[in-house]
Amino acid sequence: MSLPAFAADMTLGARAHRVAAVAAEFADRVDRDGRFPREATDAMKAERLLGIQIPTAFGGESASIQEIAEVCSILGQACAASAMVFAMHQIKVSSLVEHGSESEWHKDFMRELASRQLLVASATTEAGIGGNMRNSICAIEIDGGTCRLTKDATVISYGAHADAIMVTSRSSEKAAPTDQVMTVFKRGQYTIDKTVDWDTLGMRGTCSDGFLFKGEAPAVQIFPKPFAEIAAQSMLATSHLWWSSVWYGIAADAVQRAQSFVRAAARKSNGAVPPGATRLAEASNLLQLLKANIVAGLKTYADAKADPDQLSSMAFSIAMNNVKLASSETILVIINQAMIICGIMGYKNGTPYSLGRHLRDAHSAQLMISNDRILGNTSTMLLVQKPDTSLIG
Known about the structure:
By secondary structure, this protein is of the alpha+beta class.
């Protein structure tokens, strides 16, 4: 896919908005048909968004966590499924950037990813572990310089469309379930046989089918650091922050549609304040709170990255958990308010104010790492961790 001749603005924001325009054009069809947002991901590759996080030394742009969050938000306002594919890809890339610099193979893979704009998927869930990615049943087998792995993955988002998959497993057949490693398998090094169809209420375009994964690759493709470190020091924060940024984008577009509805009603009412105006003010207030929550979380992570001990601390985990919990719950309130404002025009499909897709996509937020699981983990940590009550950190 080539860039149009008039696409002179190559700032990250401009590129993201061009991709968002493509994503928005196909969003309803992606949702209706439950199909992968191929047009949007092709546009991401054409605009070279998939490699922006890779360090410039390896051919990327060294994009910051804040810049990636902004792209997630821009895409989320257009098509939640496309935005979530981008966010999940970047979450995996963050593991590569933060934990792959000690390995020559992983550094070479970063170069390849940036050059070829590879799309990376994740296989962290598994049948029999109840959604807890910090446990594995399957084990990597290392035979000389080769590793082999078979995994019954209940979900591999866009797995059939990825160029590589990062897979978690026990470090050996004798290892404990929590003694995990993560391995990069490139297309051609694995097979996936679909076991579960992804036919869902929302986020239909992520195509998060279940697969039986079988891979064989050089053992150097195993990350040199334990998955426990990778999860605590990059995946925890990037998942909660970039998912939240996508959800913010969904909510922001819902509020914009509600505002357009109220403005149209005001023009017809000879200056009288429309009935939905007060609810619009309430939704705007909640959207600002949601934004502040995410922005504060991004700053907390940026500050913590300079201190590995802080990244692995209970206080940091609690802070990131709270960002996810608040974001995933607040967006539903915001979008419901927007639905009430727009009334039947928001409830119907095919109108400028339609919000059914937004509401269905938003309901996934509390389920992507279950809020009950996160609350349980946070409550355990709060038994020994004093809450941070300061305003300036």
